[in-house]
Amino acid sequence: MHQDVTPLLSVQLLHEELALQWVVSATPVREAALSQAWFFFQLMSKSMTLHLHNSERLDAPRAQRFPERFVDDISALVCNVCTEITSRYLQDAEFAERLNSSLAFFLNDLLSLMDRGFVFALIRSYYKQINTKLPKAPNPNLLISMRMDLIRIVCSHEHYVSLNLPCGRLSPPNSPSPSISSTTSQSSVFSSPAQDKTVTNMFELSVPFRQHHFLSGVILTELALILEPDVEGVFFLQKKAISTLHNLLCSHDTDPRYTEPAVMRSISYLYLPLIGIVLETLPQLYDFTDPHAQRVRHASSMMDEVDSDGGTISQTVAMAIAGSPLPTVQKTTSFPLPPAPHRPGSALSAESSRNLLVCALWVLKNAEQDCLHRWFSSLSVIQLTRVLELLSLCVSCFQYKGKKAFERINSLTFKKSLDMKARLEEAILGTIGARQDMVKRSRVPPLSLPERSPYATQENVRWRKNVTQWKPSSEKTEKSQAERELEITVDGNMATEANLVVLDTLEIIVQTVMLSEMRESVLGGVLKVLLLSMSCNQSALYLQHCFTSQRALVSKFPEMLFEDDTELCSDLCLRLLRHCSSCISSVRTHASASLYLLMRQNFEIGSNFARVKMQVTMSLSSLVGTSQKFNEDYLRRSLKTILTYSEDDLELRDTTFPEQVQDLVFNLHMILTDTVKMKEHQEDPEMLLDLMYR
């Protein structure tokens, strides 16, 4: 009996019969199978795995693992399921979403079992069916959402990177490794042979890119389509598309297989077109440099600027001390690059914009520098300006808040929640019934009941089912505190790393344009981004690197400050003086060094540093007259450091430079002293006039 059954079982395999019967079954049976599709899909994938193991075909070529009839049945089954999704999503959206997710997990399993090219063809067929329905669909957003869910689940495959066939260099091989794809698999995926990539089309979401990197190409295409300016009312789709990409990049960072920098550089090739997508979407991103937002941000910073009636000296009066009739230094803390187009109504939210900028910075961080250098060299001045605008937006978005700022935000949030709770209770108490009784009972002090009652102190709770939520929990408080500490640390590290990536990208841009005709047009924008980062709240670690880059830039291109643009020199002096009054010694040291080298370079050009002297004097007058958190003692220490630098400078010891520096430092000390006296004699007009014109 056993010998007769064995041959029969070896022919009628479970997964083959399931696929066949599902395709040819009548409507009632098919309906029952669709309602439990997740179970039958999992049953098929497990049966396929067991069959490959028992038949010792796990090492066989993927195209030869399963018979052609079964492959055709799978194609028909996926097509039928997709038809059910597109035809029933309006009548029963929940059913369609469940069926769509079940199909996605099944395709995910098939990537590990069958020919990858065949599975990609199934995904392409799914997309074609969805796209056919979209133009006439009453609710196309739901179809697009399910399409995104499917590709999100498929891309959660553990070998997602290998499935995308990432190239190692600018000219990719036909197949990265034999284990990733067979020749048959490649021919079934790509309709045309692989083409040699140039740097330009590596950053474009072109047909060759989508063919060579199928899954990442699909994700980036979804993102590009949903971020088009004329697409309106799809905020949740934008958030879903950006979150899918963001989570995917996070998974690469946390994967222990991809810790080597060389591996991450290879993975970054999968997302190079993202930079172009973000540049096109730039007008739609949340404007973190908005003046209203900046006023809120700077109200809590250490470098507040207030009006003259806020306890500080009027800027006009302070400028008179410096010997300038009217202030000419701009007070703005943002340095706008060429204005972007008007932001349309489909602008992204702050959260989505932040996540999208994180993704762009991830690509810039991990991409090969030579690749970025060659791409930047292929861009025009206008395109490079847009890149600089993107970097400036990143600087405005990722600012170092610090512990005090987080505590202030949490306090405001807590007060707001209490206010909302009070309003809610007031609305509830406005009606008569059980709700009013419940709220009143919750405000009654606990009754003194016998200890044997487990609810002795909880009788004010109407329903004892939820009694646990009324118990005070010190553990929850401690956990919340730990979570806040972690949030502060992560946010600080994030801000520092984001700005360091911006700094590295600026260095690559400078190296790219320093010998080209675009130098004069681009370098000013680079310095403006640096100045913007200096004006924002930054960590001490970043500021040290920022000052180093600023000194190198000014040293290589001094004419940018001393011959061309007076405004840049003025802004730079103001930023450096502001950081010279920092409470952090390392920041003061670097700011003092930058300010001293600025004087030195100006002196080497014309045997004096009259321009820097004038701008520093005016900037100091503006700073001490308008900054509420200005620290006089720290600034005096920085001025003493500058004086020490000039005395120890052996190259210029025999020139008039040390004497000029000494005169400038003396004048700056006098400005500080007179400003302090003006604060003491604000009610004495005659003394104020004497100090102004002395």
UniProtKB/TrEMBL annotation:
A Gene Ontology term for the protein's cellular component: cytosol
MF (Gene Ontology): guanyl-nucleotide exchange factor activity
Gene Ontology BP, a term: small GTPase-mediated signal transduction
InterPro entries named in the record: DOCK
Organism expressing this protein natively: Engystomops pustulosus (Tungara frog)
Name of the molecule in the record: Uncharacterized protein
Top-level taxon of origin: Eukaryota
